[in-house]
Amino acid sequence: MAMIQFTRNYTDRSNDSGFQFEFHCDKCGNGHMSTFITNKVGLAASFLRAAGSIFGGAVSRAAYAGDHVKDALRGSAWDDAFSEAVTEAKTHFQHCTRCGKWVCPEACWNESRGLCEACAPNMEEEAAHIQARVSVEQAWDKARKVDQVEGLDMKAQQAVVACPHCRARTKGGKFCAECGKPLVAKAVHCTQCGTELAAKARFCAECGTPRGG
Hints:
Layout: E1 10-12, E2 18-19, E3 21-24, E4 31-33, E5 37-38, H1 40-55, H2 58-89, E6 94-95, E7 102-103, E8 109-110, E9 115-116, H3 123-144, H4 154-157
Antiparallel strand pairs: 1-3, 2-5, 3-4, 6-7, 8-9
């Protein structure tokens, strides 16, 4: 038996009425839908079910028997339909002999090389891609050489997103617009050695003098 192709990348769209398959490009996912192949046994069973719902009795029993026949023939009928769909689909794809993938000729096949573009990239497309990547990298380098925060005063910004007294949000300045208190606490120094004390320190970390002592 000949080897069946397209077994890796297809979607079965078959139903009780017939068989249809969607084959996909292994590289980009674009697809081709095969011609719908009517399942005659499935149609007969559907007709008998419809008639049985009206007449009942022997017709209903015939519909039940038709379903069993359809199920019994489903395997060989599906195989034949799939084989026919594969033969049809092969005309819409190119087979790369290097990697074994089936790809669409419109986007993923390098005609001049006779290989898929994963194995033999289109050099004009690659050149455009490389140029775009390099342009982005150069833009980053150029931006790094320019002072983007020339007008930003980092010293004034270091303390204030919220007022330490009322917690109101602030956009800067020396005093809170809500409560009027200073946004940055005035530095306190040790009365003995002059070292600046931490905000909640009770003693000087350098000489041990009590705060305010």
